[in-house]
């Protein structure tokens, strides 16, 4: 027959404790971890009574369900101040770090003593404290195990340039105040492209850190970059300062000279033109950009534009109206400061633009006309003198305005969808 038995005690990692007088012993507090193939229980080897400060031996027993036992006498130190504390250089020790109850015992520890330690360097410092006539010693060990804080940045250079470790270091600090940095990588300056660079920082206590940055080596094939080439808008016959506010800066050589070709700009004629700017760096890399130059129109331009268009359309009132209706598409634009110029150069606009453009062409052809609008100013059209009588004519490209070409008052009213005009402000049309 085969018999199986368990004779292996639990595996247990124990720990010592530091507690205050009000601590109630719990055997599980002394265990960091434990393991066994069966269920385990944790208990005290005897009953303990804590009555005063001092160190107690506490027997802790871990037993599995087959009565295999692992036990240890752990130290339980009952005190009001911790016997020792490890402080990392650069940090500050406080009463909360040393006392179990700052509220009850804070007055027994002088802040001046802590300030002295906090301003000192690495070493071991002993504080002698008294409690109910007894002397207690707490040892504070200041150590430096923290490496420097090193922040690197990526670097880009041209192929004929060099880089040293300081080019890559954004910042480096350490509590010791002394840091030595070293470039660990042998840079290959013949390698166009990217490569990883390692920088090491070591403090005065031997703590070190290594970090990596990227070095990019590139050829100089880029020309200068222009700034300040915003659109210039001038009146006709103005003098233009093409260089004011303009800069050409090369990434390698800095400020670069540039030339301006304004041969295609004619300030005597309204319109949109382009000046050409060219800059070259010391290596010969060239950048060329165009700058928009707008020469504003004046009334003479408007008049010339109207005369030019008048020559393209017929002389009859319906031919003129059809030209405006068919060539200026409808949009919600009012035409800005000069709706006629807007309509005849952009070839779009609302009813106001259509009516004014129609009126200008009528005038060129010798007709008398008036601009008219509804009382709520939601629509504009024209009244035209035809054979000695006033008639309504509408050049807006909308189906409601195509029903009748030359209209009487009643015909006009039938096309306005319930709107009307001030009959006293305009002549009647029969």
Mean pLDDT: 95
The third-level CATH topology of the largest domain is C8orf32 fold
The SS-based structural class is alpha+beta
Determine the strand fraction and express it as a percent band.
35-45%
Give the number of domains.
Answer: 5
The side-by-side strand order for the widest beta sheet comes to 2-6-5-4
Q: Sketch the major β-sheet.
A: 4 strands, mixed
General form: elongated
Q: Mind telling me which CATH architecture of the largest domain this is? A: Roll
Helical fraction equals 10-25%
Number of E-state strands? 27
List unreliable stretches of 5+ residues.
none
User: Which value, in Å, is the CA radius of gyration?
Assistant: 47 Å
What's the total helix number?
9
CATH class of the largest domain: Alpha Beta
Termini separation (Å)? 130 Å
Write the layout of secondary structure elements.
Layout: E1 11-14, E2 17-19, E3 31-35, E4 40-44, E5 54-64, E6 69-78, E7 84-88, H1 95-98, H2 102-105, H3 111-118, E8 123-131, E9 134-143, E10 149-152, E11 155-158, H4 165-168, E12 169-173, E13 179-183, E14 193-203, E15 208-218, E16 225-227, E17 232-234, E18 247-250, E19 254-255, E20 258-261, E21 271-280, E22 286-295, H5 299-310, H6 317-327, E23 329-330, H7 339-346, E24 348-349, H8 351-364, E25 369-373, E26 380-386, E27 389-393, H9 409-414
Parallel strand pairs: 2-6, 7-9, 11-15, 17-22, 23-24
Antiparallel strand pairs: 1-3, 4-5, 5-6, 8-9, 10-12, 13-14, 14-15, 16-18, 18-19, 20-21, 21-22, 25-26, 26-27
Helix pairs in contact: 5-8, 6-8, 7-8
Care to describe what's here?
With 430 residues, the protein is α+β, with helices and mostly antiparallel strands. The strands form nine sheets. The chain has a four-stranded mixed β-sheet, with no helix packed on it. A four-stranded mixed β-sheet has the order 11-15-14-13. The chain has a four-stranded mixed β-sheet with strand order 17-22-21-20, with no helix packed on it. The relative contact order is 0.06. The longest helix is centred in the C-terminal third of the chain and has 14 residues. Helices cover 17% and strands 37% of the residues. It has nine helices and 27 strands. Helix 5 crosses helix 8, helix 6 runs antiparallel to helix 8 and helix 7 crosses helix 8. The protein folds into five domains: 68 residues, Immunoglobulin-like (Sandwich); 60 residues, no CATH class; 70 residues, Sandwich (Immunoglobulin-like); 71 residues, Sandwich (Immunoglobulin-like), CATH 2.60.40; 116 residues, C8orf32 fold, CATH 3.10.620.30. Strand 8 and strand 9 form a beta hairpin. The model has no long low-confidence stretch (mean pLDDT 95).
């Amino acid at each position: 027959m085969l018999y199986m038995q368990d004779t292996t005690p639990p595996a247990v990692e124990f720990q010592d404790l530091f507690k205050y007088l009000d601590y109630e012993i719990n055997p599980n507090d002394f265990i960091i971890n434990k393991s066994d193939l069966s269920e385990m229980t944790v208990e005290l080897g005897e009953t303990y009574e804590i009555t005063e400060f001092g160190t107690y031996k506490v027997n802790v027993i871990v037993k599995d369900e087959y009565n295999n036992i692992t036990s240890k006498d752990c130290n339980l130190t009952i005190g009001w101040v911790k016997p020792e504390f490890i402080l990392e250089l650069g940090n500050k020790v406080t009463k909360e770090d040393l006392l179990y109850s700052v509220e009850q015992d804070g007055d027994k520890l002088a802040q001046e003593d802590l300030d002295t330690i906090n301003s000192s360097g690495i070493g071991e410092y002993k504080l002698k404290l008294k409690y109910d006539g007894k002397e207690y010693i707490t040892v504070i060990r200041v150590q430096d195990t923290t490496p420097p804080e090193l922040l690197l940045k990526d670097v880009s250079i041209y192929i004929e340039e060099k880089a040293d470790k300081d080019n890559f270091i954004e910042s480096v600090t350490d509590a010791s105040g002394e840091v030595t940095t070293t470039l660990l990588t042998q840079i290959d300056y013949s390698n166009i492209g990217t490569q990883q660079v390692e920088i090491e920082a070591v403090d005065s206590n031997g703590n070190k850190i290594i970090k990596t940055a990227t070095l990019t080596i590139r050829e100089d094939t880029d020309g200068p970059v222009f700034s300040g080439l915003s659109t210039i808008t001038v009146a006709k016959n103005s003098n233009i300062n093409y260089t004011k506010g303009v800069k050409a800066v090369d990434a390698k050589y800095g400020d670069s000279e540039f030339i301006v070709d304004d041969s295609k700009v004619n300030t005597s004629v309204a319109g949109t033109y382009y000046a050409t700017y060219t800059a070259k760096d010391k290596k010969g890399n060239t950048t060329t950009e165009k700058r928009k130059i707008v020469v504003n129109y004046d009334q003479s331009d408007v008049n010339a534009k109207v005369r030019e268009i008048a020559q393209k359309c017929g002389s009859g009132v319906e031919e003129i109206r059809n030209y405006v209706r068919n060539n200026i598409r409808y949009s919600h634009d009012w035409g800005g400061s000069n709706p006629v110029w807007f309509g005849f150069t952009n070839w779009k606009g609302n009813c106001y633009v259509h009516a004014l453009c129609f009126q200008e062409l009528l005038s060129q052809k010798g007709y008398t006309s008036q601009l008219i609008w509804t009382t709520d100013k939601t629509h504009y059209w024209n009244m035209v003198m035809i054979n000695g009588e006033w008639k309504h004519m509408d050049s807006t490209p909308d189906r409601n305005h195509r029903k009748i070409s030359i209209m009487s008052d009643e015909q006009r009213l039938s096309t306005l969808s319930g709107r009307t005009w001030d009959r006293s402000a305009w002549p009647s049309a029969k």
